[in-house]
């Protein structure tokens, strides 16, 4: 049987360094599968596995004792041509993510997997599984709300490419429904929310619309006007006379994070390093996105209605963790 091209020492080392992590990620894998994955002959894989099984780190006596070497399930290897690592050396002692660090990374990956441009969700799911296995303890479960803006974004892109208007029913932040005809120009995201920016024929001005508040979205045959996306304001959110004022408390260094909400000083906070700012929002329900994006940083101080809505929303979110992680049940 051909062994393939002759490998130098550096090539053999590279193959071994790649093979060990691969075997660690697969509890049981056949020699043929490994050979196909790395593009090498099966016999080369078998030789590498035998070499791994004779590798390790000597103990305090400077001799190789039981537990100082890698080990495999020899019967599976010799009888069924399957590779199963049963003992790892030194690698298990490498620094690992804490449970909290792993949970934070997994939450970030869950967010990325929900974005339309990240089509390879299998790769993201595989990485999340690796983080769970390699953490120093079981990561805490983090609930990330799911959104499905992909279909709407595809329709908007089609309209932009054809240079035509779109129409949809829009639920405003105050709970009203209106039919809108819009010249679409740009789709942007802030945290987990997606927004359409374009010329609204009803208002006769540039407007920003949240995709999750649209329904009945349809691409029309009406051509858009001769406006350019370059005419869009630099900031995503534009204030209006009907905006509501809310007082929040946060560290002074974090105030620039609220730039879209026109923060104005409302005096120092009760603790060192905290300041109070008055911001403008279209509706008190809009505070949910601000609080979620600056969790643990910003506190809603007033008015009472704003505090109550924020408190109830946070309590509802905390209740979802009780649903996601069932406790012990009595039969």
TrEMBL record:
Which Pfam families does the record match to this protein? HTH_PafC, WCX, WYL
Please state every residue range assigned to the domain named WCX: 244-316
Q: Which residues form the WYL domain?
A: 152-219
Q: Which domain of life is it from?
A: Bacteria
Which InterPro entries does the annotation name? CBASS_pafABC_assoc_protein (IPR051534), PafC-like (IPR028349), PafC_HTH (IPR043839), WCX_dom (IPR057727), WYL_dom (IPR026881)
* Stored PROSITE patterns: WYL
Supply the source organism's classification: Bacteria, Bacillati, Actinomycetota, Actinomycetes, Micrococcales
Q: Where are the transmembrane segments?
A: none
Record's protein name: WYL domain-containing protein
Query: In what residue span(s) does the PafC HTH domain sit?
Result: 11-133
